[in-house]
Amino acid sequence: MSRNLFVTGTGTEIGKTYVAGLLVKTLHDAGLDVAYYKAAMSGNDRRADGSLIPGDALFVKEFAGITQSMESMCPYVYEHAVSPHLASRLEGNPVRMEVVEKAFREVSAEHDYVVVEGSGGILCPLGYDEERIQLEDVVHRLRLPSVIVADAGLGTINGVVLTYEYMRQKGLPMRGILFNHYHEGDLMEEDNRNMCEEMTGLPVLSCIVKGDKTLAGITAEQVAALFS
């Protein structure tokens, strides 16, 4: 079975997929057997034949250069760019925990490391009408440690600390924070980094600049050590 790591964020459009791709690429480039998994993806385009393209999975696959099939990366793919619980209400095929867990176990049986990406922030509901499933339920069920992806800019202290406190209260282990959209030398962003570390006790593992193809300040060995 694999060692695993969950990637959550302080909100949607924060860059979780990009950071997940960087994590996968870092391990893959180091010669490790790594895979990607996401329980539910919303906001996907259709192919000419009408089937949906799992966009996040496609990005990670191409960005990291892994050969894993996209079909194994995500059991639930929706067209509408809304929370999965609402997308399934509009499109059918509601998320079931047993399906999420089965698909994850199949991936983890085939690979040494699995990066698991969440949908939106940690409070995003995956299912509601038929089976009430929060992202935290998936993290608990799969026994995943987490990293928090946050924007380096204005407002991030509030988002990081609220996410941290919620996850701490729910008993979800956290390994650290990854700052995205970072500008080196920016006084406010440097202070954001220091304050987030001070107020949560979590380390900022890497500060990521737009267009980065590697994770700054952290080695592949250190990335691998985040997984359990």
Give me the oligomer status: single chain
Give me the secondary-structure category. Answer: alpha/beta
Largest sheet: 6 strands, parallel
Can you tell me the CATH topology?
Rossmann fold
Specify the number of helices.
8
The order of strands across the largest sheet is 2-5-1-8-9-10
Our Rg estimate from Cα atoms comes to: 17 Å
Keywords: ATP-binding, Biotin biosynthesis, Cytoplasm, Ligase, Magnesium, Metal-binding, Nucleotide-binding
Catalytic activity: (7R,8S)-8-amino-7-(carboxyamino)nonanoate + ATP = (4R,5S)-dethiobiotin + ADP + phosphate + H(+); (7R,8S)-7,8-diammoniononanoate + CO2 + ATP = (4R,5S)-dethiobiotin + ADP + phosphate + 3 H(+)
Pathway: Cofactor biosynthesis; biotin biosynthesis; biotin from 7,8-diaminononanoate: step 1/2
Active site: 38
Show the helix and strand layout:
Elements: E1 3-9, H1 16-29, E2 34-38, E3 40-41, H2 55-64, E4 76-77, H3 84-91, H4 97-110, E5 113-117, E6 125-127, E7 133-134, H5 135-142, E8 146-151, H6 156-169, E9 174-180, H7 187-200, E10 204-207, H8 220-224
Pathway: Cofactor biosynthesis; biotin biosynthesis; biotin from 7,8-diaminononanoate: step 1/2
Protein name: ATP-dependent dethiobiotin synthetase BioD
Organism: Selenomonas ruminantium
